Amino acid sequence: MYNILICDDDKDIVNALKIYLNEPSYTLFEAYNGEEALEIIKDNDIHLALMDIMMPVMDGISAMVEIRKFTNLPVILLTAKSEDSDKILGLNIGADDYITKPFNPAEVIARVKSQLRRYMELGSGNVCKGVIRIGNIELDDDKKQVTIDGKEANLTPTEYEILKLLMENKGRVLSPNEIYSRIWRGNPVATDNTIAVHIRHIREKIEINPAEPRYLKAVWGHGYVMEDKQ
Questions:
Q1: pLDDT of amino acid 128
Q2: Could you please report the per-residue DSSP string of 21-77?
Q3: What distance in Å separates the CA atoms of residue 32 and residue 41, rounded to the nearest whole number?
């Protein structure tokens, strides 16, 4: 069973999402502002949250900031706008994915399943085992843990998956399209901005100087590569 929180101030949208996600394996929780969402997440074992950005009392951005202070559960942000700035803002505050209104039911279902699968795999340790080391970075896939000089880096599930993919392909340049397809397991959509924001967050957590990365580097016009060169 998976516990999924749907948070939107529009009850029609909440009801629509409940219909899309009407599966025996899902237990659905409802909230209509950020404060209600925070209380539900604190009081229940929530495995994934669908969070609207524009809400009264506490908006999705403010709620997202608070959520990331105590949990790395996957959060898919809902936005009524299609501008990249809204999507980037959501990713900047720790969201794992976004869906633009009006929703495509098949897309909602696919993205929810993808995030749940990654999150539960990271927690259960049923995926590829082993330890990968590059310089002073160690990724322990048994523990689903990344440490820098022995100190844990608090990565979200999506950040962990991207870093693991790059570490497993050390020295190979991966394009944003390839990263998106392999992590999200779907056709690339707005990949450059999506991946760039996640890369920036990973650098902030693993690099001494994110502006001049030692490990996670961009190859202009091609993508990103993990290497260990001073």
A1: 42
A2: T--TTEEEEEESSHHHHHHHHHHS--SEEEEESS-SSS-HHHHHHHHTTT----EEE
A3: 13
Which CATH number is 23's domain given? Answer: 3.40.50.2300
SS3 (DSSP) at 181: helix
Indicate whether 125 pLDDT > 50. no
Helix (H/G/I), strand (E/B), else coil: 206: helix
Domain final position from 78, 98, 124:
124
Q: Label residue 126 by pLDDT band (50, 70, 90).
A: very low
Q: Residue 172 belongs to a domain with what CATH number?
A: 1.10.10.10
Q: Does one domain contain both 25 and 118?
A: yes
Q: Is the CB of residue 90 less than 8 Å from the CB of residue 59?
A: no
Q: Strand (E) positions, the chain?
A: 2-7, 26-31, 48-52, 75-79, 97-100, 131-134, 137-140, 145-148, 151-153, 216-219, 223-226
Find the domain containing 176 and state its range: 131-226
Are 140 and 216 in a shared domain?
Answer: yes
Confidence at residue 181, expressed as pLDDT on a 0 to 100 scale: 83
Q: Where does a domain end: 124, 146, 179?
A: 124
Count how many domains the chain has.
2
Measured CA to CA in angstroms, residue 204 lies from 64, 154, 199 at distances of 18, 11, 9
Phi then psi for residue 122, to 5 deg, are -65, -35
**Are residue 36 and residue 86 in the same domain, yes or no?**
yes
